[in-house]
Design goal:
Length: about 250
């Protein structure tokens, strides 16, 4: 059973040498809405998520909304297992894939073909699985003979097309995104949009952080509004979006 569950989860980041950073500490305090405190040992901490209790189930298409610094990226990383809760419980059941940084693991000195194996490995694909997909990845990326050239010879658009082509061959049970991906020129964007939409349809749970009202209205069936690391509202997009974005 695919699910994501948090029970009273907190995520704290310790701030070292805080006494020598009084001005910086004050600026952080203003920027984070005052979510600065001290733990039991007296160490200064920044609280990124506070008392988070959520349950996500099969079929949920969840949009994370909130101001910059509200905790959206931290929550995505908590789901993916990059972070562990400082206290409370966080449990993710199901295969997770993240499209937060599609260029992660890309080596500019390696060829495009070699980077397919590097990026594919980071996504959890075996060598045989990559070999099964490599022709379709190359065809989708439209790199042609450039696939055997070092990545440093690519334009930015070519690099993004390759990273996108590799990252979207996975079919995870849980998909994490930080905004909707849009890569390449107009022609490539059209087929990239279709591929991404198909990927979203095939996944059991989608969690996407976004500032776009149009996107979340189109893609999501549930909105979680974070404010200063806490859940301010959780519900139907038709109820939550007007309160956050305004009518």
């Amino acid at each position: 059973m695919v699910s994501i569950e948090f029970e009273h989860a907190f995520v704290d980041f310790p701030v070292y040498n805080a006494d020598a950073r009084s001005l910086k500490k004050r600026l952080i305090q203003v920027a984070t809405g005052g979510q600065i405190g001290a733990n039991d040992q007296g160490r200064v901490i920044v609280r990124a998520l506070e008392d988070l209790s959520l349950k996500l189930h099969d079929g949920d298409r969840v949009g994370l909304i909130g101001h910059n610094g509200a905790g959206k990226s931290t929550l995505l990383r908590l789901i993916s297992g990059v972070y562990e809760p400082s206290s409370g419980r966080a449990q993710t059941t199901g295969d997770v894939a993240s499209l937060i940084d599609i260029s992660l693991g890309i080596d500019p000195e390696a060829t495009g073909r070699e980077n397919i194996f590097l990026r594919g490995g980071l996504l959890g694909l075996s060598r045989s699985e990559i070999l099964d997909q490599i022709d379709s990845i190359i065809e989708f990326s439209e790199l042609g003979d450039f696939v055997d050239m070092p990545l440093r010879t690519y334009s930015t658009g070519m690099q993004l097309r390759l990273a996108f082509a590799v990252s979207t061959v996975v079919r995870p049970e849980i998909l994490l995104m930080d905004e909707w991906l849009s890569v390449g020129d107009e022609g490539f964007q059209e087929k990239a949009e279709a591929r991404l939409a198909e990927l979203v349809r095939s996944t059991n749970i989608l969690v996407i952080a976004s500032h776009s009202r149009e996107l979340i209205s189109r893609v999501c069936n549930r909105l979680v509004w974070l404010e200063h690391g806490r859940v301010k509202m959780d519900g139907d997009p038709n109820d939550v979006a007007p309160l956050y974005f305004g009518s």
